[in-house]
């Protein structure tokens, strides 16, 4: 059974968020990081998983339900996308606003390498009730602390947006030019050979002047003007 999400109750991207995609941080691919705390005999165990779609998130939540079917609550929250514009949470039976929202706020507020915001992440906190009611304020603190404790020890990578370009090279100089670019630290994504020319594919860290910077750099390295063709963007985890 999938968790029900109520998007009308969730905070959207804040006024302080930067417009458009920016670098952000993620868990390593395939990583599953878990941490548990105990609050007045109740155990709160938060699992962090990297996800890229709502379906992936819901599949993980369903898996936690099956794995820990004896637990009373499986509270969840996730943030997706470079813009972090997909934000969902569920209290899963806890009093409204006391579990999913504080978990989501921890994810949204966390900063990773180079002060990058966190995204493409799911947090599922499974609670085993210890017999003592915590009250609304106690639940708010417990779920927030559980998510924070899990994140404090989680391995995070910086995800950088790169702009992709291609340019043509004379066949007679393609191998030499490729070697010059690689030696200068240019990210060469590949090279295609045609009967009358070669086409080299390059990547550079994105920015408003990415094309101009790369064009000028290539012209200096190759001692001739260079015309670039844009080929979109890609993301690099590092």
Describe the structure.
This protein has 238 residues and is an alpha+beta fold. The protein folds into two domains: 21-155, Impact, N-terminal domain (Ribosomal Protein S5, domain 2, 2-Layer Sandwich), CATH 3.30.230; 159-237, Alpha-Beta Plaits (2-Layer Sandwich), CATH 3.30.70.240. Helices cover 27% and strands 33% of the residues. It contains five helices and ten strands, in the order E-E-E-H-E-E-H-E-H-E-H-E-E-H-E. The protein has helices at residues 54-67, 100-109, 135-152, 174-183, 210-222; strands spanning 24-26, 32-39, 42-50, 73-80, 86-90, 121-128, 157-169, 187-193, 198-205, 229-237. The strands form two sheets. Strands 1, 7, 8, 9 and 10 form a five-stranded antiparallel sheet that branches. Strands 2-3-6-4-5 form a five-stranded antiparallel sheet, with helices on both faces. Helix 2 (100-109) runs parallel beside helix 3 (135-152). The radius of gyration is 23 Å and the shape is elongated. It starts with 23 loop residues before the first strand and ends with a strand. The model is unreliable at 1-20 (pLDDT under 50).
């Amino acid at each position: 059974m999938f968790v029900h999400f109520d998007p009308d109750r969730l905070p959207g991207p804040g006024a302080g968020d930067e417009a458009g995609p920016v670098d952000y941080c993620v868990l390593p691919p395939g990583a599953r990081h878990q941490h548990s705390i105990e609050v007045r005999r109740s155990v709160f165990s938060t699992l962090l998983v990297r996800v890229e779609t709502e379906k992936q998130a819901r599949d993980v939540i369903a898996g936690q339900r099956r794995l820990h079917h004896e637990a009373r609550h499986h509270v969840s929250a996730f943030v997706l996308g470079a813009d972090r514009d997909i934000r969902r949470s569920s209290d899963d039976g806890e009093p409204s606003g006391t579990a999913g929202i504080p978990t989501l706020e921890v994810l949204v507020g966390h900063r990773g390498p180079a002060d990058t915001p966190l995204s493409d992440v799911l947090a599922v906190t499974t609670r085993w009730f210890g017999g003592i009611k915590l009250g609304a304020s106690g639940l708010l603190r417990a779920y927030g602390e559980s998510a924070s404790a899990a994140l404090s020890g989680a391995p995070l990578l910086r995800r950088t947006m790169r702009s992709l370009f291609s340019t043509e090279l004379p066949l007679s100089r393609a191998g030499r030019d490729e070697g010059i670019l690689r030696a200068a630290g240019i990210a060469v994504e590949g090279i295609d050979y045609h009967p009358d020319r070669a086409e080299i594919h390059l990547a550079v860290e994105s920015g408003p002047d990415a094309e101009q910077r790369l064009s000028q750099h290539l012209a200096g390295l190759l001692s001739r003007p260079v015309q670039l063709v844009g080929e979109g963007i890609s993301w690099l985890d590092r």
